[in-house]
Amino acid sequence: MPVPCDQNPITLASYLDGELAPDQIPAMHEHIATCPQCAIEIAELTRLKNGLRAARGHHAPTLEFRKKLQQQVAPPRRPHLNVLRFIPAALALPATLLLAFTWTQHSRRQDAFSEVADLHVNALASTNPLDVISTDRHTVKPWFQGRIPFSFNVPELAGTEFTLLGGRVVYLHQQPGAQLIVAMRQHKISVLIFQASPGQTLPFPASTEASAHNAFTVETWQSNGLRFLVIGDVDATEIERLAQSLKQANT
Amino acid sequence: MNPEFFEQLAMPLFDQLYNFAHWLTGDRADAEDLVQETYAKALKGFRSFQQGTNLRAWMYRILRNTFHTSRTGLAAQNTSSLEEEEAQGNDVTAHTITPELLLLKQEDQQTVLNALAALPVSYREIILLCEVEELSYREIAQVLDVPIGTVMSRLSRARTALRQPQKTNPLGRPINARTL
After folding, report:
1. ipTM score
2. Shortest Cα distance from B165 to chain A (angstroms)?
């Protein structure tokens, strides 16, 4: 019959579990070396521990469940990301309005240019294109007095490639204006002058480089309360030159 | 703690927690419900989680408490009274050689697993936490919300019960780990 051992079994287990205080370990080693009962107990607890290793990871979650849980714990999307999702929708309305506005403006401008082109073509198609026929600017300018509610200067075109043919009164958007016809070789160019009052409805940009519209070249600008439009079927550079002389005469 | 950190801190524990849950419930569907509820509760309470405290013990504690308040957990508890077992006192000795030798001589891990599955839940959970999930006594004390001394004594009794399953199974419950 072996001598009963007074070693607490809990202390043995703590030793195996790595929970024994470091200062108690040498004494434990010493005891196990001299106590066959405790040595056997240690061996059996160790075998039990080894046997229980099979329980680690014994039950594995399914892939479906892993995915499900991952979705569950996925961090909430950042607020600004949520906002981002609504940005397209939030932008859509202003963008649509802007597009509509731009298109309308563009469309109105196109209409205005078309009307100006109509005036130009009308004059050329008319059997009576000019109300005042003169190459002399000092004849043409005074002719407009009393016919239109404003005055403008006609540049001296003598010595240039341009020849003043005369002028007529036209109306655009219920506003009276002056139309000068200028010849350049076989081409005819119209210079249209209207009042640029604050209430004027002409949807032209404040100034443009010569631009092409329906094969006509148009240049427009505003000066001293007057709106000038130069339109013809010539090159932009030629329209530009005529516009320059008009600008110089009316600054 | 920011909930954004929850995923990266808690997801690495997923496999271990699932294994623990499955051992506790003995059923895949119940284990999934338990793990899911655990993560939901943990995520909810994560803001109050103090950085520097033991997240692993905290998660196990949530899972364990959730289990004990679940239908399965309550059923398991009804079959064995913890107080009764605690009251058995120090009648466990270290030198009851014969039964454990019978078990261990079989050198069959399946036998050990069967024995584990058949343990009353209070013993099963502490064996799992210590031997399978490898929590320290301190962590186990946090999970079970008991003093470390209780952890040590209960663990000792659990091991003794585990080593003599056929003889002392207090549940009188058939040992059938295959259902786990």
Report:
1. 0.74
2. 13
